[in-house]
Amino acid sequence: MPSRFVSMPRKNILPLLVGGDRRTIGRSNLVTEMVSRDPALFPNLIAGLWSADRLVRMRAADATEKVTRKRRELLQPYKKKLLGLMSEAKEQELRWHLAVIVPRLPLNANERRLATSWLNSYLDDRSSIVRTCALQGLTEFALHDRSLRAKVLEVLREAARKGTPAMKARSRKLLFHLQRV
Questions:
Q1: DSSP-based helix, strand, coil % in the chain, nearest 5
Q2: What's the pTM value of the predicted model, to 2 decimals?
Q3: Are 115 and 83 in contact (CB under 8 A)?
Q4: Closest Cα partner for 115 from 104, 124, 125?
Q5: What is the rounded average pLDDT of the residues 27-54?
Q6: Per-residue pLDDT reduced to its tens digit, 41-67
Q7: Which has the closest alpha carbon to 12: 24, 2, 20, 4?
Q8: What is the DSSP secondary-structure string of 71-136?
Q9: Distance between CA 44 and CA 60 in Å, rounded?
Q10: What's the pLDDT score for residue 9?
């Protein structure tokens, strides 16, 4: 379904993300490959984040996260839209991907404050995966913004003591990494 936020290129890859079970990523790895080979498809992938179909939104977020591991610059034109989506997203699958994607954006101080505020709110999500990904996102911001380090270190230490098993394990790794820089 075309998004009201993003124009779509000629080749629509979103039908590849339709159908199946919510517990699977469907063909998002295929879409990741396609977009990695042809970045002109990226606007279509981003449009999927606003699809009316929950499975498409979830899988588009998964593929976006994977593509932008190596191609962060593709996110730049969508900065404001992604920050807005971060504040609106209710589904855990979308939230946990946004928690990792948004810190890849080049943000100014105000945008970073806004994004860290949303990540802090994600720490109260009922999903352990969302909370764990929020820890990852906060750490990414703290790696590049010294003013955030003390607070993020405190959050990580608390999560390492009181979090779910996934949060404890991730927090220990993130603490090790953040304390080395």
A1: 75, 0, 25
A2: 0.89
A3: yes
A4: 104
A5: 95
A6: 999 999 999 999 999 999 999 999 999
A7: 2
A8: -GGGGGGGHHHHHHHHHH--SHHHHHHHHHHGGGS---HHHHHHHHHHHHHHTT-S-HHHHHHHHH
A9: 9
A10: 45
